[in-house]
Design a protein that fits this description.
4 helices, 39% helix, globular
């Protein structure tokens, strides 16, 4: 667990993390969807990390402060971008 903490700590105050857990087929579809929003993802300092899991699908948004801001069973980029725009560090 400590190695995972160190891995995620490198993003603290630098990037928001969008953690996506899904099966490989869905991950391919999600990557296409994310490619269409590349500018917004870059502008909002979001780093997307995928976890392959054939049984569970969920999405977690972690803020610049390292705290979980959103946990959903599906990916809704508009909801994520709207939430990020309301965060205190949105413009940094």
């Amino acid at each position: 667990m400590k190695n995972r903490q160190l891995y995620l700590n490198k993003y603290l105050w630098k990037k928001r993390l969008l953690l996506i857990k899904s099966d490989q087929e869905n991950i391919s579809q999600i990557k296409q969807q994310l490619a269409q929003e590349k500018k917004n993802i870059t502008d909002w300092k979001i780093e997307v990390i995928f976890f392959n899991d054939e049984y569970v699908y969920n999405v977690i948004l972690i803020g610049l402060d390292g705290l979980i801001k959103l946990e959903e069973d599906s990916l809704n980029l508009n909801k994520i971008f709207k939430l990020v725009s309301t965060m205190p560090m949105a413009n940094f």
